[in-house]
């Protein structure tokens, strides 16, 4: 290939390249990527040398099409092509931004990110549905996962721990939709949650002491409120000598303890076989001599086995659940116990829950995107068949004397 020197300005006999035209840019990308994918030697070159060759090829393409572009635009186009070739295209800059926690794609032209707890429009676009699909399939290829008409939904974990969910037409009516929850390498600490006004310092001290004293804890909250973050922080307080088994759909917990067994569920293959559910893993964990079990999220029939584990010596176990309030989380647990085909009465279900749990922590996110502990309730027992709760903390109100709490339950007061 002949390498041409980059021009300082658009030549009079060549029109400016229509770099705002998605069709033109799409043709340029496709032509260069097809050519570069055939040149395997290029992929082994140093990044600087690779960029120089791509820039030369872009100038050659522009010349043959009767166009020209200033050096800075050629460099920008080269970066886009390299991202398409060896990276994740327009997503590269978003994945590299540590301030972004979620990337949400509603078709090729609508990309949003969550930054600081608030959603905003991202300054990137895909050329078309095919372009978006190529990027997503490149993400999934090393994982051995498919995304096509026969398998139009996929949920996977990337090598860095980030989670990606994708759904395509005909299920998604407006084009491929992709959700990426980025994995945070530098997990927040208890001190940072206090500094960010997410948890008052006296309450954080109380919650950490509850973990050490092996209280069974349920963390409740809506999507993106910080349930897993708080679970991570509290789990860091578990004494080093205890054996902990974690069970998650996508491994996110980063416990500091050395004696941790990490288990992850597995989806069924394309033939509908090989699924390993959270309930399978909870049952298996009981044979692994755990001191504590941490279930990343309670969402189905595994709840009954988790509650039974809490009731049979695995004190200090923890889980999270999606719910709008601490009291609503009990309704969610009751519903999930029923999903397990449990045949007992409602009163018995409530007694199982009440004997298992010591505390419910509700985490919320306000309209400004600020995440915080909204309330903490103690599970005190059962009265007339209903679970009784006692408030320990409510945001905006003075903290009670947390050291004076009586943890002895009164499971059946009256009938």
UniProtKB/TrEMBL annotation:
Gene3D superfamilies hit by this protein: 3.30.450.380, P-loop containing nucleotide triphosphate hydrolases
InterPro entries: P-loop_NTPase, T2SS/T4SS_dom, T4SS_GSP_E_ATPase
Ranges for region Disordered: 1-22
Location of the Bacterial type II secretion system protein E domain: 87-361
Pfam families: T2SSE (PF00437)
Family: Belongs to the GSP E family.
Identification of the protein by name: CpaF family protein
Lineage per the UniProt record: Bacteria, Pseudomonadati, Pseudomonadota, Gammaproteobacteria, Oceanospirillales
């Amino acid at each position: 290939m002949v390498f041409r020197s980059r021009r300082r300005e658009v030549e009079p006999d060549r029109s400016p390249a229509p770099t705002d035209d998605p069709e033109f840019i799409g043709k340029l990308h496709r032509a260069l990527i097809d050519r570069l994918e055939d040149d395997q030697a290029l992929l082994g070159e140093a990044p600087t040398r690779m960029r120089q060759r791509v820039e030369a090829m872009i100038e050659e393409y522009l010349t043959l099409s009767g166009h020209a572009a200033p050096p800075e635009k050629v460099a920008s186009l080269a970066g886009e092509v390299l991202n398409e070739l060896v990276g994740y295209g327009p997503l590269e800059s978003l994945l590299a931004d540590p301030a972004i926690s979620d990337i949400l794609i509603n078709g090729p032209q609508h990309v949003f990110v969550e930054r600081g707890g608030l959603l905003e429009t991202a300054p990137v676009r895909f050329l078309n549905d095919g372009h978006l699909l190529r990027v997503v399939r490149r993400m999934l290829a090393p994982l051995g996962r498919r995304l096509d008409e026969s398998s139009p939904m996929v949920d996977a974990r990337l090598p860095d721990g980030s989670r990606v969910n994708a759904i395509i037409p005909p299920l998604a009516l407006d084009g491929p939709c992709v959700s990426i929850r980025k994995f945070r390498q530098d997990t927040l600490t208890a001190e940072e949650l206090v500094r960010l006004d997410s948890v008052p310092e006296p309450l954080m001290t109380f919650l950490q002491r509850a973990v050490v004293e092996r209280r069974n804890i349920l963390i409740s909250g809506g999507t993106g409120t910080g349930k897993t973050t708080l679970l991570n922080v509290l789990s860091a307080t578990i004494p080093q000598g205890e054996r902990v088994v974690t069970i998650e759909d996508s491994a996110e917990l980063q416990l500091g303890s050395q004696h941790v067994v990490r288990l992850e569920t597995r989806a069924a293959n394309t033939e509908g076989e090989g699924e390993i559910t959270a309930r399978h893993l909870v049952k298996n964990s009981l044979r692994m001599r755990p001191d504590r079990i941490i279930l990343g999220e309670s969402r189905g029939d595994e709840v009954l086995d988790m509650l039974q584990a809490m009731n049979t010596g695995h004190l200090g176990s923890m889980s999270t659940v999606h719910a709008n309030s601490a009291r609503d989380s009990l309704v969610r647990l009751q519903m999930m116990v029923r999903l397990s085909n449990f045949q007992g009465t409602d009163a018995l279900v409530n007694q199982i829950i009440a004997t298992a749990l010591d505390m419910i922590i509700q985490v919320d996110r306000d309209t400004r995107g600020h995440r915080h502990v909204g309330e903490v309730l103690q599970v005190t027992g059962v009265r007339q068949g209903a679970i009784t709760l006692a408030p320990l903390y409510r945001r905006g109100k003075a903290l009670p004397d947390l050291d004076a709490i009586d943890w002895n339950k009164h499971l059946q007061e009256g009938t």
